[in-house]
Write a structure and sequence with these properties.
The chain is an alpha+beta fold and 406 residues long. The chain has six helices and 20 strands. Strands 3, 4, 5, 8, 9, 10 and 11 form a seven-stranded mixed beta sheet that branches. A five-stranded mixed beta sheet has the order 13-20-19-15-16, with helices on one face. Strands 1-2-6-7 form a four-stranded mixed beta sheet, with no helix packed on it. A hairpin with a 5-residue loop joins strand 1 and strand 2. Helix 2 crosses helix 3. It is globular.
């Protein structure tokens, strides 16, 4: 039986668009380790533990998500004795316990300072009794996500083992390998770029969790994942408290239809206990899209064509640009953390609007040829399709793809 004792636990939060608050959960121990969570959609957190015996946990972990979110933070205290004789965690504003158990419906109810439990809170998802393979861990994560969505009357999301999972797996393994947190990859990639390169065309928003100690490790090709670690990741995301609740809002976004899950863990050693990293890639599936080129020259025109489904009504096409991706050191990745989805520098609308080029809209179909030129500059151009979803007049981005322009 492994002997462990919790050391200092730091839970911090940062937002793609919002401010930064912190949570400190302290406990005694010899060596410290930190586990962090951050979101492009919202919060960043650091959670640490130390080993009372011969082995320790990694020094830092973090998570990230894509979109418009804020962070969350709480103060409290936690402690545990070697062998688990005593332990616990408390937070005065409901970040959720960092122990093994979740509130009854996973809804972060009034008892822990979170929002009231919904009347239609579903039953608890039964915890698997044995360590999980990566495919099993993905399915368990989706079950927890859908439990939390059901508590708010939202439709479930389906596990998409195609492009969203491939993109999430790529990112989770990269974070494990280099010990960082964030939405940028070590190659300079961003969530929608990884999704595009994996063959995706829909809108994608990312939550992620990993350590941030910047130590290089070897990814375990056949890891076994502790179910409690899956629960902890979802709990940290879901139990954020408004207004610092970016990850939570990503999970509870009604427009999401599918999710990909990246799960990676390093090879355990004689001195270090392995812990997993996760990436949740939420997808809004509302149509089919004609392919775009992977690369183009500045000023080149591309044909954008989409046929929308599920009552979505196409309205326009946007073009954004960010700098060309280039390798980024782990130390810089840990400083960047949150990532806001770039805003288009140019929008193209359908008939009846003042627009540089009028998009042709016929029922659920939209098509247009647009130039990839932001004053002739090279960069990673991002082509988006916009629509109004059934029952809504709000402009919503339903597709986001990247083209490397240089």
């Amino acid at each position: 039986m492994r002997s462990r004792s919790l050391a200092k636990v730091v839970l911090g939060a940062c937002a793609a668009l919002g401010g930064r608050v912190g949570v400190l959960l302290g406990a005694g121990g010899a060596l410290g380790a930190a586990l962090g969570v951050c979101g492009a959609l919202g919060a960043c957190a650091a959670l640490g533990a130390c080993g009372g015996g011969a082995r320790t946990l990694p020094a830092d972990v973090a998570s990230s998500g894509g979109g418009d979110a804020r962070g969350s933070g709480i103060e409290g205290a936690a402690g545990a004795r070697a062998g688990g004789a005593a332990g616990g965690a408390s937070a005065d504003r409901g970040a959720g316990e960092l122990g093994d158990e979740r509130p009854a419906a996973g809804a972060g109810g009034a008892a822990d300072g979170g929002p009231p439990l919904p009347k239609n809170a579903p039953a608890v998802v039964e915890r698997p009794r044995a360590p999980l393979t990566v495919p099993e861990a993905r399915r368990y994560m989706v079950a927890l996500i859908n439990r939390d969505r059901a508590a708010h009357g939202l439709a479930p999301v389906e596990l998409d083992e195609g492009a969203p999972t491939a993109a999430g797996q790529r990112h989770a393994e990269d974070m494990v390998r280099l010990g960082y947190l964030g939405h940028w990859g070590s190659d300079g990639s961003v969530p929608e770029q990884r999704h595009t390169e994996a063959g995706g065309a829909d809108m994608v928003l990312e939550n992620a969790l990993c350590f941030t100690d910047e130590a290089k490790r070897t990814v375990d090709e056949r890891p076994l994942i502790d179910p409690k670690q899956v629960e902890r990741a979802e709990s940290l995301f879901y139990n954020e408290v408004p207004p610092n609740d970016g990850h939570r809002r990503n999970i509870l976004k009604p427009a999401h239809t599918r999710v990909g899950v990246g799960v990676a863990q390093f090879v355990e050693t004689a001195k270090e206990l392995a812990v997993p990293c996760f990436a949740q890639e939420f997808v809004d599936g509302y149509g089919t899209y004609a392919p775009l080129p992977r690369k183009a020259k500045p000023g080149a025109k591309v044909h954008v064509e989409a046929t929308l489904t599920n009552g979505a009504r196409p309205t326009g096409v946007g073009v954004a640009r960010i700098p060309l991706p280039k390798p980024i050191a782990a130390s810089e990745l840990n400083r960047r953390r949150s990532y806001p989805v770039p805003k288009p520098f140019q929008m193209y609308w359908g008939p009846g609007f003042v627009t540089p080029i009028v998009a042709k809209i016929t029922g659920p179909k939209i098509e247009i040829d647009v130039p990839l030129s932001d004053k002739g500059q090279p960069g990673l151009y991002e082509v988006s399709v916009w629509a109004k979803l059934a029952g809504s007049d709000e402009q919503t981005m339903v597709s986001l793809r990247t083209v490397l322009v240089e």
